[in-house]
Specification:
By secondary structure, this protein is an alpha/beta fold. Helix content is about 45%, strand content about 15%. It folds into three domains: about 150 residues, 3-Layer(aba) Sandwich (Trna Endonuclease, Chain: A, domain 1), CATH 3.40.1350; about 50 residues, no CATH class; about 220 residues, Nucleotidyltransferase, domain 5 (2-Layer Sandwich), CATH 3.30.420. The strands form three sheets. Strands 1, 2, 3, 4, 5, 6 and 7 form a seven-stranded mixed β-sheet that branches. A five-stranded mixed β-sheet has the order 11-10-9-12-13, sandwiched between helices. A two-stranded antiparallel sheet has the order 8-14. Strand 4 and strand 5 form a beta hairpin. Bound molecules: iron/sulfur cluster (SF4). The site of iron/sulfur cluster has 13 residues, from helix 2, helix 8 and helix 9.
Length: about 475
């Protein structure tokens, strides 16, 4: 039996479906982040159902498709206003419709997604196969909708307005024609009966795929995927150059790629001292090294925020007031259930003076949080203006590592988690209970929603502080390394 999930797997990557059906043992189960996403989807699905009162849920569709399809037919005959998880079978294709809504002239298909405004093309495939199977059951489908989350919805009261929270986007004109679907179904049959197909390796497309480890198992360390775009990397592999060091020197289209090739070949860093000196000359004292940790509630937890908005709940700040001066450390960490941004703003304004450079790695993130707080929160005008002025004073510590300081151990990446072990190996995140932004978000969830003992709370808060402080201290160390290198 082919489910709609299997159909969308095929549409995303035929090999993914083949592996799922013929070699399931090579797939890795969802990790914590993926599982969290799945759970979130389930919760949003239940919330969406509440927007269609009087509906009836079909139970256990997956366990017994025939019985679920029969129950769906019976509910439709009764004329219930909505059916949740409505089940339909057509030949060997089985789909569950999140919400089947009765209309005066037929039924609407409503697919619920916990994602924001952008419509992933895979959602169109998802709804297209539902539309096909439902229509082939003789049901008059009036419209097909995607019900997703309006990330522009700005909540100004304590209660969420669900009519604003959910977006309903009609997809009718974008669905795959039935003839095309039938052709694809025939291709799927052929694919599944044949040998294991080749996959198209793509850094973005394969990221998060449950077959990632299997498909990428033969990609060597130092592979061309580390510095080239996927299409170019595939071409180089096909030409017998799987590793960056196999690429002839000076043969790339950009200086940056040629420098990287040299770094991989010689295992020596590439350092453009003049460019680094220019970058360092932009730093004006006092220097403020700033890093935010954020939570990202799907359903706004506080007024003046949007679904999925990144809300700062913590920051770490290292300050150096003059060249060669000692580093001072300041920090903020939320407490209780109130909106953490107000305490955060108050602490920022207390610690960061009106002059000097702010530094952050991938500074657009910190800048955006400052401008959002300035625009979104009901602050006195002088405070909003101070935050906006602060946001204009950033220099990004990532920039030098994008083309002026390239180290073989950075593996082609300028992210701090790659740059730090390359330049300051003694400062490691390994073994830290909170070692990345995802861990910090989980810690926030536990502190905010969990039933933790005082000791557990104290431990988590201390782990959060240690992690965030390390992020800004890492930037300090990187800038010191840059200074030493010119
Ligand atoms: S890892 Fe990539 S090639 Fe392999 S199945 Fe997944 S998407 Fe396809």
């Amino acid at each position: 039996m082919l489910s709609k999930l299997q159909y969308t797997r095929y549409k995303g990557c035929p090999k993914h479906l083949w592996l799922y059906r013929n070699k399931k043992e090579v797939l890795t189960p969802p990790d914590e982040a993926v599982q969290k996403k799945l759970d979130r989807g389930y919760d949003i699905g239940l919330l969406a159902q509440k927007q269609f009162p009087g509906g009836v849920a079909v139970q256990n569709g997956w366990k017994n498709p025939q019985a679920a399809a029969a129950q769906t037919r019976e509910l439709m005959a009764r004329g219930v206003p909505a059916i949740y998880e409505a089940a339909f079978l057509y030949h060997d294709i089985f789909v569950l419709v999140d919400i089947l809504q009765k209309t005066p002239g037929g039924w609407n298909i409503i697919e619920v997604k916990s994602s924001g405004k952008n419509i992933n093309p895979i959602y169109l495939d998802d709804v297209s196969i539902q539309n096909y199977v439902v229509a082939k059951n003789g049901v008059s489908v009036e419209h097909c909708y995607l019900m997703h989350i309006n990330t522009d919805y700005f909540q100004t009261t304590d209660e969420t307005d669900w009519t604003q929270f959910f977006l309903r986007t009609q997809l009718d004109s974008e669905l795959t024609p039935f003839a095309e679907i039938e052709q694809q179904l025939a291709e799927i049959k052929k694919l599944l009966a044949g040998p294991e197909p080749e996959g198209v390796l793509d850094k973005n497309g394969c990221a998060g795929c449950e077959a990632h480890d299997y498909c990428w198992r033969e990609i060597p360390e130092g592979s061309v995927f580390e510095i080239f775009r996927s299409r170019q990397a595939r071409e180089l592999m096909a030409q017998g150059m799987p590793r960056v060091q196999d690429v002839p020197p000076g043969s790339c289209q950009t200086d940056k790629l040629n420098h990287w090739v040299e770094v991989y070949r010689t295992r020596q860093p590439y350092i453009d001292r003049a460019a680094l000196a220019r970058w360092l000359s932009r730093l004006k004292y006092p220097l403020y090294y700033l890093d935010f940790e954020t939570c990202q509630p799907v359903i706004p937890l506080w007024r003046f925020s949007r679904p999925y908005q990144q809300i700062p709940f913590q920051f770490s700040l290292h300050i150096q007031r003059e060249p060669g001066g000692a580093y001072e450390h300041r920090e903020y960490l939320f407490e209780g259930k109130q909106d953490p941004r107000f305490g955060c703003v108050e602490a920022l304004l207390r610690y960061i003076g009106p002059a000097g450079t702010l530094l952050a790695h991938h500074a657009i993130f910190e800048k955006s949080r400052l401008t959002e707080m300035a625009h979104d929160l009901p602050l006195p005008p002088n405070q909003s203006q101070a935050l906006l002025a602060m946001s204009e004073r950033f220099v990004d510590t990532k920039i030098p590592f994008q083309q002026d300081y390239l180290h073989p151990a950075m593996c082609g990446s300028a992210s701090i988690k790659k740059v730090l072990p390359a330049l300051v190996p003694e400062l490691t995140y390994e073994g830290m209970p909170i070692a990345n932004g995802g861990d910090a978000m989980n810690a926030f969830d536990q502190l905010y929603f969990g039933q933790l003992s005082e000791a557990e709370q104290a431990r988590l808060r201390s782990d959060l502080r240690r992690y965030c402080e390390q992020d800004t201290w890492a930037m300090v160390q990187l800038v010191e390394k840059l200074r030493a290198s010119i």
